[in-house]
Design brief:
Blueprint: E1 11-12, E2 15-21, E3 29-31, E4 37-41, E5 50-56, H1 64-86, E6 89-100, E7 103-110, H2 118-121, H3 129-138, E8 152-159, H4 176-180, E9 185-189, E10 192-195, E11 198-201, E12 205-213, H5 216-227
Antiparallel strand pairs: 1-6, 2-3, 2-6, 4-5, 5-8, 6-7, 8-12, 9-12, 10-11
């Protein structure tokens, strides 16, 4: 077996889709068109710990022209191929992309939404998610209008000290109610537990603090305002999420 690798500068930019490939129904595609840009390190660029930690939606990374190209040249041919070889596909198709100097390259496919990509995509979905899944199951996705909020979203992942290596657990977390009280902010629990009525850390990626606002910079500021209200010993997060 021969394995070829290529090393270069690129940006990871996944596109989650709702899709179904059915015979004689080429219109049965509904795409999020809400791509996300990933940052792969726990801490800021000047520090070394690496692991996928935070995500933000930004048009500067994944503009409309790039999304349209990917849908036309990657997603639709993929669904057509599944139709031809497997009899069709109904469900979520996650396309993991690397944006290189030579254009978008497919890194991976998943039949699920990603984490933490979902935390910035679904808050912008105005159509009921249950309606989408029902339409998928019945083969009626093409007849369902899908509405997206025009605002930007930013998610900052708060991690445990030491992650992705060894990290402590059971540390009390405070400020969750204060952070969640900010308009447009949702705090997603990734690695938490409850002991004696207190929320504590229970994983490497502890929280995903997501904010939605009129533009990227406003969403970014709101996300960090929320992060500043949360405390647990050794918490780690990047300070440059959402910067173009």
């Amino acid at each position: 077996m021969l394995v070829l690798t290529r090393i270069g500068q690129s940006t990871e930019a996944p596109i989650p889709c709702f899709g179904q490939s059915l015979a004689f129904a080429p219109d049965q595609f509904r795409f999020t068109k809400a791509g996300a840009g990933l940052r792969q390190r726990v801490l800021d660029a000047r520090r070394r710990t690496s692991r996928r930690q935070i995500i933000h939606r930004r048009q500067a990374v994944l503009g409309g022209a790039v999304v349209d190209w990917v849908l036309r040249n990657v997603v639709e041919p993929t669904l057509s191929g599944l139709e031809a070889e497997c009899g069709g596909y109904q469900g979520i198709l996650y396309v993991g992309l690397m944006l290189t100097e030579d254009g978008p390259k497919v890194l991976e496919y998943n039949a699920r939404f990603g984490d933490p990509e979902t935390q910035v995509v679904l808050p912008r979905l105005e159509t009921d998610l249950v309606d989408l899944f029902e339409a998928l199951s019945l083969g009626r996705l093409g007849g369902l209008p899908v509405r997206w909020d025009a605002n930007a979203t930013v998610c900052v992942v708060m991690a445990s000290a030491g992650y992705p290596g060894k990290y402590p657990t059971g540390l009390p977390i405070t400020g969750l109610d204060a952070a969640g009280a900010l308009e447009g902010v949702v705090v997603f629990h990734a690695g938490t537990d409850q002991k004696d009525g207190q929320i504590v850390t229970a994983g490497g990626r502890v929280l995903g603090v997501t904010a939605r606002d009129r533009d990227l910079e406003s969403a970014r500021k709101k996300a960090y305002d929320a992060v500043a209200r949360i405390r647990f010993d050794g918490m780690a997060y990047r300070t440059d999420i959402g910067r173009v």
